[in-house]
Structure formats: C-alpha cells, structure tokens
Amino acid sequence: MSQISSNEANEGLYSPTVLKMVYTPVVIWFSHTLAWKLPNPVVHRNHREHVGRTHLTVGPGNGYFLAKLPKNTPLRTLHLLDLNRACLDVTAQRVGDRFDVHTIEQDALQRWPVEEAGLDSVDCHMMLHTVRGKNLLDKEALIAEAARALKPGGRFFGATVLAKGEGVRVNGIARRLLDVYNSKQNTFCNLGDSSEDLRAILDKHFSDVQFQVHGCTGVWVATK
C-alpha cells in the first residue's frame, strides 16, 4: 500500500442542519442522478439484498438508505463508522428505533474496533472519494479492513465517484463539481481515482467481485 495521508472531520459541511435539510435533495437526489449518474434504485437494491444481521456502514451520511431498508431486513446490529460526529448522531437518531446501533468516530483508514471475521456485511457508499490520497492505492486500507472484519462469505458493497478509467464517463456537471469539490479541503480527494485501481484492489482482497461503472461512479458487491 502507498503512504496514506491523514483525514479530518468537516464539521461545517456535515452539520446536523445540513444533514437533515440539505443532504438528501442536493447530494442524493441531485448529485447522484444528474452529476454522477448513480441510479439510487441500485443503491437501494444492494442494501436490500446484501445487508446481513450484523452490519457496518462506513460513512453513513444522514442514514437515508439505511432508513429505507424494508421491515423484513435481517439487520439487527448496526455499526456506524465516520470521522464526523454529526453523521453518526443523525443516522443513529434516524434508525435507532429499529436496530441496535453502535457508533465509531474515527478515520476509516485506521484499524476498526470490531472483531476479525465478526461482521456479516459492510457497505461504503459515496464516501471513498472524500478520503485523502493521491489515488485509490492510498485508500486501500479501508477495503482491507472491510475484508478483515467480514466473516467468510460476507459481503462488502458500495459506490464511489471516479475521475478516470475504463468505462468512466464524466459529464459537464460532474466535471464542474469535481473541479470545485477537489479544490476545497476535506470535500473530495479523487482526481487520481480510477476504475482499474478500484477493481484491482477489490480483487486483491475478495474472492468474488461484481463491478460496474454507472456514469462516473464505480459500484461493487464483493464477497469474502
């Protein structure tokens, strides 16, 4: 793995007010659909099909997709991992009446405080592109931790915005947002992130990988 850089919380961007009032319409409805071309039904489907009884979400945002899980979901114990306290609190408040929620406030590149081979599933949606690093090789520790924490047969699924690589299509809106977001500290750090590197890292740590590119978003389901 390459040398990684440190990550910091962004309390201004991820405030309780922004997460409750702005995040869903701007990030999930507008950016996913028009800029990154990530179909939200795909994210909902992957949550429905791959969440297990004991699950960890890296970067929960405001808990939108977790809150939309059906009543018959197998999920019982939910670990939330994020550097931003507000993301943990808002999501825990949103789904705490349904699941046994445990919050972990830390950098996702550091070792997670969960047992080895103790989780049924892990997801990381639209967060990896915010992690510091020249490219995805600098962020490999997150994917390695997901593999370490999963039981044999466990699933790691997610999505991230990519800037280049085979199949990646960056439209005008996405290009403008990438330029703006990568110029601000602690927003995006993904101009070196490619579809080839993402697929290679997933293949390195998991026995089976399903990988697709939607617009400029890499979407995966990986089985340990």
TrEMBL record:
Pfam families, A to Z: Methyltransf_11
SUPFAM superfamilies given in the database record: S-adenosyl-L-methionine-dependent methyltransferases
GO biological process: methylation
Molecular-function GO term, any one: S-adenosylmethionine-dependent methyltransferase activity
Signal sequence, start to end: none
Alphabetically ordered keywords of this record: Methyltransferase, Transferase
UniProt superkingdom: Bacteria
CDD domains noted in UniProt: AdoMet_MTases
Name of this chain's protein: Class I SAM-dependent methyltransferase
